[in-house]
């Protein structure tokens, strides 16, 4: 009997089922195939464990992740996918906002991990087996289930599939009002047959208020990660408003000094060091702020919690955003928050009150260091906005019209008049000359492109420009098409910039890094035109769309002017405003010298009968002519 008992005891560890690991424990046994931690086991952050483990809860059919970038969101989604594949295989749908991002996710993250992790490789059929369905759209598992890869913008791809689990990433880019239906709702319908057993993961960095991730998070239990102050034990969330820093001079502008940034407790105001922040995060907890919702879990987390980042590194990104007047990217990708300023309606009367009687083209302020012009081409006219600027101020000095019966043909009088206007000498109220640095002329009209190109080639400071349909990328980029050189402008980003400047101007923000001011004699409908577009969903993103019945030439020309200002400054080296001030000083010295010379008696000149070879026409060797 004793021998039998001993045998049974020894057999127990062998026949006993292995301990069931929860998703986070299972994921931490995976060996990462690439990145800085390649070859090491995955180590989840403390706040990620509940975000992953909740996929096993029967209570929640839907889980929403609203996060900043670089917070290992993709790691969570991949871990959930691999856990389901290994523990309860079924048809799984994986969807991204665009085809390019979907391919990148599949090839660089999913396929690569499967190939290099044996436990996952054993689950997938041989990609060289022609009897199996393995391609960019699907991966067949050995048990007959599939991984389906889809784009959220394709209703066709979402239909006709029965899916127990669905993973949707970067949903903020979708068009919720698509004629074919809301992609998220279409995806959810694919899991209807599985009832409460279905699981839908929805993830994204936010963009604007009311985008898809905002809607989903608002309809969840809205969990936030709370930490306890190392000094006073006050439980709170980490917010950007609790990061304090000093300001430093950059020319005449004050910008944040990231090297002085410190995190403080909102209660006791004590400074929290990096090591203390990481320790606080490691012992934090998720708290649902909307507990009345019981079937959808929502998680919000930002980079202030990341052990892989520092407060000063984050502040450095804010410093750059402040310098470039681009807050949206910082709010979206660093703080994981929506940026709604660009969507706010601006009161018409408030805009009209921005007209300033103190300046116009005949009374240019002495503080103006440079001038740029943005010109729009229409069939019967050219419209140009004149923008003066210094480090902290932008002056819309005027808006001019140049007419011809047909501005699509070479030799039209409007171009001659525009050239004469732009080549004149602009002077401030004290008589100092201000350099005109760049003139942009829109060549986006295919019928006029040859005309605009020929015109701009005659003058060094004139540039043919075209607006890009791409909403991402550089503000300006040198391009060539059919032998013609021009600058491609990111007009979407330019319009974001204009709306942000308008909002600051109306609000009268004294701490704004750049102030936009308007001359009193701008056209009557000028402000109606600069607000003639709304930010709306379009395809896989957002775009500025013209309001029906409204003209937008003033908006376009202001955008062109701002882009030309950035281009001109980029050509002046690391301290462009210093160079502009040196030019101003040199002109003042020249004017004083000329004044002195004019008071001296003029000596009669002796005749010179020698032949002098005429000099070639100068095209100018500097930015100032």
From TrEMBL:
GO molecular function list: ATP hydrolysis activity; endonuclease activity
Region (Disordered): 582-625
One Pfam match: GpA_ATPase
Organism superkingdom: Bacteria
Span of domain Phage terminase large subunit GpA ATPase: 44-286
Bias-annotated ranges (Basic and acidic residues): 582-591
Family annotation (Gene3D superfamilies): P-loop containing nucleotide triphosphate hydrolases (3.40.50.300)
Native organism: Leclercia adecarboxylata
Native organism taxonomy: Bacteria, Pseudomonadati, Pseudomonadota, Gammaproteobacteria, Enterobacterales
InterPro entries according to UniProt: GpA_ATPase, GpA_endonuclease, P-loop_NTPase
Domain Terminase large subunit GpA endonuclease, first and last residues per copy: 296-566
UniProt protein name: Phage terminase large subunit family protein
């Amino acid at each position: 009997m004793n021998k039998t008992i001993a045998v049974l005891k020894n057999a127990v560890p062998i026949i006993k089922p292995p301990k069931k690991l929860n998703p986070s424990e299972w994921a931490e046994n995976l060996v990462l195939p690439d990145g800085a931690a390649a070859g090491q086991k995955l180590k989840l952050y403390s706040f990620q464990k509940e975000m992953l483990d909740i996929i096993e809860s029967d209570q929640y059919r839907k889980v929403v992740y609203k996060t900043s970038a670089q917070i290992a969101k993709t790691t969570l989604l991949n871990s959930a996918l691999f856990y389901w594949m290994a523990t309860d295989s079924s048809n799984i749908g994986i969807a991204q906002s665009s085809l390019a991002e979907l391919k990148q996710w599949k090839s660089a993250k999913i396929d690569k991990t499967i190939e290099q992790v044996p436990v996952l490789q054993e689950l997938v059929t041989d990609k060289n087996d022609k009897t199996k369905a393995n391609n960019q759209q699907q991966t067949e598992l050995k048990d007959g289930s599939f991984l389906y890869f889809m784009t959220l913008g394709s209703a066709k791809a979402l239909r006709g599939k029965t899916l127990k689990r669905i993973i949707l990433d970067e949903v903020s880019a979708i068009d919720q009002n698509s004629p074919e239906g809301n992609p998220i709702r279409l995806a959810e319908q694919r899991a209807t047959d599985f009832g409460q057993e279905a699981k839908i993961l929805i993830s994204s960095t936010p963009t604007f208020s009311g985008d898809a991730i905002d809607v989903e998070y608002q309809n969840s239990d809205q969990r936030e990660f709370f930490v306890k102050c190392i000094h006073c034990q006050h439980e709170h969330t980490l917010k950007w408003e609790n990061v304090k820093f000093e300001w430093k001079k950059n020319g005449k502008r004050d910008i944040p000094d990231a090297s002085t940034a410190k995190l403080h407790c909102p209660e006791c105001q004590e400074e929290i060091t990096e090591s203390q922040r990481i320790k606080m995060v490691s012992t934090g907890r998720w708290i649902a702020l909307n507990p009345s919702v019981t079937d959808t879990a929502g998680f919000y987390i930002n980079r202030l919690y990341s052990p892989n980042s520092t407060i000063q590194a984050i502040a450095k990104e804010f410093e750059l955003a402040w310098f470039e007047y681009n807050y949206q990217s910082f709010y979206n990708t660093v703080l994981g928050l929506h940026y709604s300023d660009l969507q706010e309606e601006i009161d018409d009367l408030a805009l009209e009150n921005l007209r300033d009687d103190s300046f116009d083209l005949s009374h240019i302020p002495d503080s103006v260091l440079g001038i740029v012009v943005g010109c729009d081409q229409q069939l019967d006219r050219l419209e140009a906005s004149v923008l003066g600027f210094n480090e902290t101020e932008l002056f819309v000095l005027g808006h001019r019209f140049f007419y011809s019966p047909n501005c699509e043909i070479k030799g039209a009088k409007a171009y001659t008049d525009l050239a004469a206007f732009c080549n004149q000498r602009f002077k401030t109220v004290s008589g100092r000359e201000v350099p005109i640095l760049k003139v942009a002329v829109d060549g986006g009209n295919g019928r006029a492109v040859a005309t605009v190109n020929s015109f701009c080639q005659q003058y060094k400071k004139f540039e043919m420009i075209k607006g890009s349909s791409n909403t991402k990328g550089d503000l300006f980029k040198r391009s060539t098409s059919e032998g013609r050189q021009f600058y491609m402008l990111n007009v979407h980003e330019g319009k974001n910039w204009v709306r942000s400047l308008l909002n600051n101007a109306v609000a009268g923000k004294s701490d704004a890094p750049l102030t936009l001011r308007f001359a009193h004699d701008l056209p009557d409908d000028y402000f109606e035109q600069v607000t003639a577009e709304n930010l709306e969903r379009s395809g896989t993103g957002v775009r500025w769309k013209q309001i029906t019945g409204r003209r937008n030439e003033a908006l376009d020309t202001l955008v062109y002017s701002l882009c030309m200002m950035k281009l001109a400054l980029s050509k002046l080296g690391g301290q462009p405003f210093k160079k502009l001030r040196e030019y101003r000083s040199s002109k003042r010295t020249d004017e004083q010298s000329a004044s002195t010379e004019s008071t001296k008696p003029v000596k009669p000149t002796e005749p010179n009968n020698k032949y002098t070879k005429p000099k070639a026409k100068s095209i100018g060797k500097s930015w100032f002519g």
